[in-house]
């Protein structure tokens, strides 16, 4: 081969090789490098190329553009909550209307407002009325601060404590809310530290959406001095109170009903025996039990709503304490060992329960078929209920539900095991109207609690 032809052959081979690589590059195809990584051969050696070789994979890198969130965890709903932030003298549960919270959404048209509104009727102004905001009814609770007598309130499902009144009444020891939270009775000692004063007030009304007032003035009147006992009617419209009266025949106890709606008073009971505890389970009967003591036989009676037909229900039971069902047919009672029973007023028979507690640590359901109790975990040998009343004994309670028909007793909450644990000696138990919440006061510190039942 001549030198000239050999030179032409070399030039042709070089041009062909260059053309081959240009063809591959124009199609974006690259040979595979070691480790299966793609490499753009021409781009690596072309300093003017706009493309840069892909960085080597060094494993996953942290994304610093936003915080890394933990996987979503299912949180257990807290059923037991402390309601009050202070010691309370008493509380009342009622149903209250409130504005319904709505999810953010585009603005809604006014009532009757459309893209092409219809013309107004003949003679009409054609003005449009705004749509009323949606409302709902929810369980609310009001309570009285022991130190100041100020009233506070909150809803049960959203604990946001709000001050309702600013009237100062120092050292209130007992408070009752009647008329579905619309009135209050407060009891406290006068300056002489001997005379029990009882103050009654109809509370200022609240208006829907206008719950911002914190310093409502509480005005009212006083009931007789040294009232011994007060009980609220089942419909919360009346109270029954007992006070001592002196006459030529000596001291006696007078029982009077007071309507919280019209202030009407009616005397329906009097007795030479002065040590009574009352209860008003329904509009037909009021019960009266002798104040209990461990070594003294106790008795229980009932009278009708007008003070007639005094009837003995139970008797000759040391340390007797009682709680009558809403229908009046059953009586929960305990003796000086805190052994608990159900007494049937129709058959005059008693059923032994599997719990030991005091009836005043219990509350009946509206259907008289179940009740809830704060049941002590441990009961030592003592003079009950005297030592408990006097503060010498304190209990650590669990919350139990008892079904009267089946006799089943179920522990539904142990406060000391919930939320890190608080030791509770439960008193003043109450249910809301729908029996969705159980409220009680801890006797150890007088704080208000609620337990969601459903």
From TrEMBL:
Highest taxon in the source lineage: Bacteria
SUPFAM superfamilies: Tricorn protease N-terminal domain (SSF69304)
Sorted UniProt keywords: Membrane, Transmembrane, Transmembrane helix
Keyword Transmembrane helix listed: yes
Residue numbers spanned by region Disordered: 31-72, 102-134
Bilayer-crossing regions: 6-25
Name of the molecule in the record: Uncharacterized protein
């Amino acid at each position: 081969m001549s030198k000239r032809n050999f030179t032409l052959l070399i030039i042709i081979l070089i041009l062909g090789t260059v053309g081959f690589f240009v063809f591959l590059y124009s199609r974006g195809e690259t040979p595979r490098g070691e480790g299966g990584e793609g490499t753009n051969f021409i781009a690596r050696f072309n300093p003017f190329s706009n493309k840069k070789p892909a960085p080597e994979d060094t494993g996953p890198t942290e994304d610093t553009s936003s915080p890394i969130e933990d996987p979503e965890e299912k949180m257990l709903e807290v059923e037991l909550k402390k309601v009050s932030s202070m010691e309370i003298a008493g509380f009342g549960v009622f149903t209250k209307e409130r504005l319904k919270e709505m999810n953010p959404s585009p603005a809604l048209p006014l009532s009757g407002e459309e893209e092409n509104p219809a013309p107004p009727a003949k003679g009409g102004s054609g003005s449009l009325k705004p749509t009323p905001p949606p409302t709902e009814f929810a369980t609310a609770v009001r309570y009285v601060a022991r130190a100041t007598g100020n009233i506070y309130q909150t809803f049960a499902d959203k604990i946001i404590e709000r001050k309702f009144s600013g009237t100062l009444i120092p050292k209130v020891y007992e408070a009752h809310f009647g008329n579905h939270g619309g009135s209050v009775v407060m009891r406290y000692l006068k300056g002489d530290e001997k005379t029990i004063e009882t103050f009654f007030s109809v509370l200022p009304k609240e208006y829907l959406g206008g719950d911002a007032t914190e310093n409502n003035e509480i005005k009212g009147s006083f009931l007789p001095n040294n009232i011994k006992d007060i009980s609220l009617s089942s419909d919360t419209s009346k109270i029954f109170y007992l006070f001592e009266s002196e006459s030529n025949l000596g001291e006696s106890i007078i029982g009077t009903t007071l309507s919280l709606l019209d202030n009407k008073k009616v005397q329906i009971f009097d007795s030479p025996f002065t040590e009574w505890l009352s209860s008003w389970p329904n509009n037909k009967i009021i019960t009266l039990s002798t104040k209990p003591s461990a070594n003294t036989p106790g008795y229980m009676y009932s009278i009708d709503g007008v003070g007639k037909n005094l009837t003995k229900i139970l008797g000759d039971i040391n340390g007797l304490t009682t709680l009558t069902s809403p229908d009046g047919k059953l009586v929960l009672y305990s003796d000086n060992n805190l052994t608990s029973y159900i007494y049937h007023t129709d058959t005059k028979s008693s059923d032994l329960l599997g719990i030991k507690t005091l009836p005043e640590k219990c509350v009946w359901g509206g259907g008289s078929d179940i009740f809830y109790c704060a049941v002590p975990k441990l009961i030592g040998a003592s003079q009950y209920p005297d030592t408990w009343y006097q503060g010498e004994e304190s209990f650590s309670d669990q919350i139990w539900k008892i079904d009267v028909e089946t006799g089943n007793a179920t522990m539904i909450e142990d406060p000391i095991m919930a939320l890190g644990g608080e030791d509770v000696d439960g008193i003043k138990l109450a249910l809301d109207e729908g029996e969705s919440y159980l409220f009680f006061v801890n006797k150890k510190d007088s704080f208000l609690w609620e337990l969601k039942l459903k």
